[in-house]
Amino acid sequence: MSHSTTPVCVLGLGLIGGSILRALTAAGRPAYGWNRTAAGADAARADGFDASSDLRATLARADAGHIVLVAVPVPALDEVFAAVARQAPNAWLTDAVSVKGDVAARVAAAGLTARYAGAHPMAGTAESGWAATTGDLFRDATWVVTADDTTPAPAWREAAAVGLDCGAVVVPAGSAEHDAAVARISHSVHLLAEAAALTAELDPGASRLALTLAASSFRDVTRVAGTAPSLVRAMCEGNRDALLDALDDTIAELISARAELADHGTVADLVERGHAARADYEAVTRTPFTPELGGPGWQRMLRERGHLGGVVTALPSSAPSTDR
Amino acid sequence: MSHSTTPVCVLGLGLIGGSILRALTAAGRPAYGWNRTAAGADAARADGFDASSDLRATLARADAGHIVLVAVPVPALDEVFAAVARQAPNAWLTDAVSVKGDVAARVAAAGLTARYAGAHPMAGTAESGWAATTGDLFRDATWVVTADDTTPAPAWREAAAVGLDCGAVVVPAGSAEHDAAVARISHSVHLLAEAAALTAELDPGASRLALTLAASSFRDVTRVAGTAPSLVRAMCEGNRDALLDALDDTIAELISARAELADHGTVADLVERGHAARADYEAVTRTPFTPELGGPGWQRMLRERGHLGGVVTALPSSAPSTDR
Predict the structure, then answer these.
(1) Is B225 close to A275, i.e. CB distance below 8 A?
(2) A261–B240: do the CB atoms touch at under 8 Å?
(3) Residues 235-264, chain A: which have Cβ within 8 Å of B?
(4) pLDDT tens digits for B189-231?
(5) DSSP classification of residue B187
(6) Which CATH fold would you assign to the domain B179-282?
(7) Where does the Prephenate/arogenate dehydrogenase domain start and stop, copy by copy (chains A, B) (predicted)?
């Protein structure tokens, strides 16, 4: 049973967009896609999906009140949003890009804010392209849907329904709050993994020996340094300001630990607080709640619930919340 | 077929020492153990192993040319080495402690250098005590045996045979070189994991949200922050000087990446070099070689082989290498 009957138009059939098309179709939700290259669209059609490489025709179809989900690389966003504004002004709009403040600014520049609720599915693999797509990529994952003061309630509802129909739980958050959080749990973490991998090679006296001796702790910590550099750069560079704040905190902690070790021979402070933080992460639970959409200050209330660990697993009936 | 018939006396039957006693016994090697607490020795005996909590009697037995392997916590090392010097001066001596320069200095202080070759099995779990022991903990792991200029060839041979009989491959290294390497592939990596876990909680605006959104990259990078703080502290604080060098390199890389991001909007330099370093790690191969023990400069030659990725999987016949 899908959470909305509105057809979904997925723009970009790479790992994320293609996996969304698969998941929605499997959930019985009407969904179709567009891909820039004919090869990508052909591959999706060969697997039985409704896909095209004609953007104009695809958007003409979406203009009938469908929801458009943009899953193209960042450099293509402006052109795609401009096309949506011209050819599908009556569609609702969401996306699947990993930064949200920057995308909201691009949406505003295209004049589409009144149709838009941003999104970020927290899932992925090191693979890319249609061949890597899978219908269960988002199963039990979190799927952020942004609730900024400008977010229209119907767009939020439709964007959330897409996430739910993909098998995810929806987490409401402000765009800035989302970007600050992912800077800390993903972007800075990737840079720490890169620095850890690199440090193993920086001792001229022992580099080959170090790699021979590296065991499970090194393997786990540096695993994400195996991600394609272009993907890591796109995430990190697209979230510059929040990432700078996160890096400043990490660097300050390491400098402080280094001084404590040099001056007092101990790393107790960092190790004990780091261990406690990891325990907090392991203890995290999701608290399902039913969102009220459209009343006064509804976006702020949603942000507060998300901030406290609230997740949305079902939507209220589509009547305005004040009538319920 | 074991690599030596010399009986092994294991001092300390926690996770590492107990697992060594299990592995050696399973390999048909004569082995027995001592544990400070009677409870630990009783548990080993209940599982069918030859174990005692009488150190004097145990060392009297080892004095008949056996090899003593010390696997006690660092604070107990000096007392145990002094007992070995008094009661088993005719035994060979090795250990299983994760730093080597500091242990070699303690061995020298006890007057045991002429009987000693240090060792560090590169394996472990987050568990501890006899209950956590397992006979296959070292299967295919690396097992460093130190080859310093003062290392006696018979001690190196006996220490290496213990590692081989536990199912590991032996990597020769100088003590200082070992300590520099593990600072980079283990100790600093643990501190980076602690800092990553902590950074997720340091943003006052979004901490709970960050933990809700944390996905596989955060889980993997921070996993070792779940290790007991006392174990992380013992490793890190026991290898202070080498760890300070490693931290300096890591911190310099992060500061440089932060500046590049702030000034030029890119993290390309760190990401591309980190990715290349991880690829180097994934490409590491072990090159088996047969060590020549006892000739002029044999320790230096072994260190050079270990430095280039050489591992020992079998020992030469016990005749001096010059006679072969």
Answers:
(1) yes
(2) yes
(3) 236-237, 240, 243-251, 253-255, 257-258, 261-262
(4) 999 999 999 999 998 776 789 999 998 899 999 999 999 999 8
(5) I
(6) 6-phosphogluconate dehydrogenase C-terminal fold (1.10.3660)
(7) 6-292
